[in-house]
Design goal:
About 85% of the residues lie in helices and about 0% in strands. With about 210 residues, the chain is an all-alpha fold.
Length: about 210
């Protein structure tokens, strides 16, 4: 009877060990696959924000914000190319949480922009006014910061969490005190501290392993 119990205990321990090792390998693979896209998007966001800031400041027209759509198209194409060469990671709770986190970031950010237009149409229809005051830059900064911190926590990387906390704090302050083209500095901060540097940390971590 004792032998059976010991075998069961060993079997349970081995199963837990295998699960832990699988999750750790998956976490390392995810870190490797996540590093390059973060570096890519960090560069794209920071450079695009600086270009729009310069053009908006010179011309006085916010129409240059349409360049964000061009940036998104370039980023998506580059991501597709990188996906073909990335190492496949087994589907685990870690990858599922990270994937769902950033999926909902996109949904909430896009949804917020859509709801601003809905609110504007309602106000115009009921003659409540023509302007909806909403600091979208602030909302995006908070959402991106939260999603980035969740990613860092799930990946067990304190340095990534620290970068996102600092980036979010600076971005929120800038978004609250700046107006017009100056708010684009928020995306420069988020691009560098919130995406580029965490991506470099993840890449460096995988090389060390």
């Amino acid at each position: 009877m004792e032998t059976i119990v010991n075998k069961e205990n060993l079997s349970t321990e081995n199963s837990l060990k295998i699960i832990a090792e699988t999750m750790e390998r998956s976490r390392k693979t995810i870190a490797k696959n996540l590093g390059k896209p973060l570096i890519l998007w960090g560069c794209l966001v920071a450079v695009t924000a600086l270009v729009i800031y310069f053009l908006w400041s010179k011309t006085g027209s916010p129409v240059w914000n349409l360049l964000w759509f061009a940036m998104s198209a370039i980023g998506v194409v580059c991501n597709i190319i990188m996906d073909k060469n990335k190492e496949k990671a087994p589907k685990t709770e870690v990858s599922r949480i990270i994937g769902k986190t950033w999926m909902w970031f996109g949904i909430f950010a896009t949804g917020f922009y859509f709801l601003i237009w809905v609110a504007a149409l309602i106000m115009r229809y009921f003659e409540l006014g023509n302007i909806v005051v909403a600091n979208m830059t602030l909302v995006i900064a908070l959402l991106m910061g939260l999603c980035g911190v969740i990613t860092g926590v799930v990946m067990k990387m304190k340095s990534v969490v620290a970068c996102l906390v600092v980036a979010t704090a600076i971005s929120v302050v800038v978004a609250l005190i700046c107006n017009g083209p100056a708010q684009l500095l928020v995306f420069v901060v988020l691009g560098i501290l919130g995406l580029l540097i965490p991506g470099m940390i993840l890449q460096n971590k995988t090389k060390q392993n």
